[in-house]
Amino acid sequence: MALTGRLGLLALLGALVVGLLFPSVTGVLAVVAVLLVLVAVDVALAGSVRALQFSRRGTTSVRLGERASVTLLVANPGRRRVRGLLRDAWPPSARADDRHRVSVPPGERQACTTQLRPTRRGDRSAALVTVRALGPLGLAARQGSHQVPWTVRVLPPFHSRKHLPSRLARLQQLDGRNAVLIRGQGTEFDSLREYVIGDDVRSIDWRATARASEVMVRTWRPERDRQVVLVLDTGRVSAGRVGDAPRLDAAMDAALLLAALASRAGDRVDLVAYDRQVRASVPNSKTLLPSLVNALAPIEPSLVETDARGMVAEVLRRTRRRALVVLLTGLEPAALEEGLFPVLGSLTARHEVLLASVADPRVAEMARARGDAEAVYDAAAAARTLADRESAVARLTRRGVGVVDAVPEELPPALADRYLALKAAGRL
After folding, report:
1. Which of 11, 32, 199, 354 could form a disulfide with 402 if both were Cys (CB 3.0 to 4.6 A apart)?
2. What's the mean per-residue pLDDT of the chain?
3. What long-range pairs does 171-180 form, CB within 8 A, spacing at least 24?
4. Taking Cα atoms as reference points, which of 363, 358, 356 lies closest to residue 387?
5. Which three-class secondary structure state does DSSP give residue 312?
């Protein structure tokens, strides 16, 4: 119960005035008694909060940066109107417009729609629904809270999907649909066509030429049904923030673009998120992209050192035939030296390995900075960091690992381009 409303304030002011005009103890006690009676009557006549019945409907998943609507239905089975305020509480990161005015007659119901604008990935669950029902005089109110469960899953935004049409166009060229000749160990025979100047003479089909009046050549296309394994490092290195988001979010964006492209190319795509254990596992399926965004949504970086030996063992256990293994991890020399380098040989011996890392554009800016002494020291530290990354890239390259090191906005298209280059070279 709570005193509230304009009438309640006026009543209190009136009691003070009466107390000043009639300062006797009896007069004051009489005023207080009248007020208490009015408050008790007001509370008794207020609608029942405990009897209210609630249900929900609306959005269950939304991409980060988009709006979601969740409707709360308030049913009043009592005999008195419930009039007052309702708060549909959500976590702060849900950015909910959660306050509503309600007036529900007996036997009827009212819909209250809460708009959510989430600022973080993951599951956002509704908290308590609190209703404050005013009495007819507005002197007091009944208040109660109810648990009305509902969860909205905030999915990765997948900003890099804007790069997909251009990469699919290049994929069509590689697929032989625009008469592009490629040849390599990862190619298969597509069709015959007439020889034109510039064609590789090794592709001439002499038997077909003998049957035709023109020289005929074979065209080739990348083999389909290759396996691509995306390995997302969710350990300590993925927790570092680049701009307003952790490195893990940029790595997820790159993984989603590559998965969409590879699946359209006819390859099998699997994803494993790992730090010291498997955090998520998505096998190849017809609904690959929805499965990926749904599995990646609740994953947050773990502040632990990734078990590289366990991660490599997990990849080898899942992948029997030769595949493209894409490691989305960091290029920090210390982490590589103690983690990945000792076990990298067992991975490169059986698979084509590609490492994709998120670079911080702020480091490059600091390396170019000049001016006062502090800026010079910052530039020296940034230059040392860049030199260490270049050294790590050189070591990985010597071990047969391709490296894509780019800032968050450029990493997804750069990784997709490297995949297409491997396709064109017949290395998949």
Report:
1. 354
2. 86
3. 171/261, 171/264, 171/265, 171/420, 171/423, 174/221, 174/222, 174/420, 174/423, 174/424, 175/221, 175/222, 175/265, 176/219, 176/220, 176/221, 179/219
4. 363
5. helix
239-276 confidence digits (pLDDT tens): 999 988 899 999 999 999 999 999 999 999 999 999 99
Region of 31 please: left (phi>0), alpha (psi -120 to 50) or beta.
Answer: alpha
Cβ atoms of 274 and 248 closer than 8 Å? no
The mean per-residue pLDDT over the stretch 135-147 comes to: 82
Q: Which of 298, 277, 294 is nearest to 285 (CA)?
A: 294
How open is the CA angle 291-416-153, to the nearest 5 degrees? 25
Helices (H), 114-264: 164-174, 206-211, 247-264
Q: Which two tokens stand for residue 326?
A: 């894409």
For the residues of 379-401, what is the DSSP string, one character each? Answer: HHHHHHHHHHHHHHHHHHHHTTE
Give Cβ neighbours of residue 388 (< 8 Å, ≥ 6 apart).
Answer: 333
**Domain architecture of the chain: domains with CATH:** 1-155 (2.60.40.10), 159-166+224-425 (3.40.50), 189-221 (no CATH)
Answer for the pair 62, 155: CB distance below 8 angstroms, yes or no. Answer: yes
For 48, phi then psi, to 5°, come to -75, 125
Over residues 76-88, mean pLDDT: 91
**Bridge-based pairing state of the strands 61-63 and 151-155:** parallel
Which pair of structure tokens corresponds to residue 264? 């359209």
